[in-house]
């Protein structure tokens, strides 16, 4: 059995936490408290490339991937993400409307810490250039020999019995 990539699970958990915090803070504080939830959502929306297998990119992820790549080790390192999520979970824990987001951020922080200890790191999903079919390379030449046929004796019609 293969190894679990913990960062993938932490990413989904943190994105859910960010969305929950945005909704909870929106109802409680209005626009002023949305910053933490929006920051978490923007940081967590781009998925990391998996070590083995294929990774399905989220819709519009490539734009936020450029921003996350630009910030370099601050966003690539999972130790820093674990500390950031733990720090953002503390103030949100004082509001009843954001308690679900707080719990989710705490869990995501723990999973990111586990991913960091296991040596995982965020890496962008690079788009592979599509290969165009070559004019002569992809077509096979026609066969030069005819298909095999049975011997002439076997090809003759068998006489019908009873007719």
Automatic annotation (TrEMBL):
Subunit comment:
Component of the phagocyte NADPH oxidase core complex/cytochrome b558 complex, composed of CYBB (heavy chain (beta)) and CYBA (light chain (alpha)). Component of the phagocyte NADPH oxidase complex composed of an obligatory core heterodimer formed by the membrane proteins CYBA and CYBB and the cytosolic regulatory subunits NCF1/p47-phox, NCF2/p67-phox, NCF4/p40-phox and the small GTPase RAC1 or RAC2. Interacts with NCF1 (via SH3 domain). Interacts with SH3PXD2A. Interacts with DUOX1, DUOX2 and TPO. Interacts with NOX4; this interaction mediates superoxide generation.
Give me the stretches of Basic and acidic residues compositional bias: 152-163
Q: Could you list the residue ranges that cross the membrane?
A: 92-115
Which keywords fit this entry according to its UniProt record?
Cell membrane, Membrane, Transmembrane, Transmembrane helix
Q: Does the keyword Isomerase apply?
A: no
Origin species, per record, is Emberiza fucata
What protein family is recorded? Belongs to the p22phox family.
**Pro residues bias: start-end ranges:** 140-151
Any one cellular component term from GO for this entry? Answer: plasma membrane
Question: Per the annotation, which location comes first and is thus the protein's main one?
Answer: membrane
What is this protein called in UniProt? Cytochrome b-245 light chain
Q: Where is this region: Disordered?
A: 123-163
Q: Where does it reside?
A: Cell membrane
Please name the InterPro entries in this protein's record: Cyt_b558_asu
Output one GO MF annotation.
heme binding
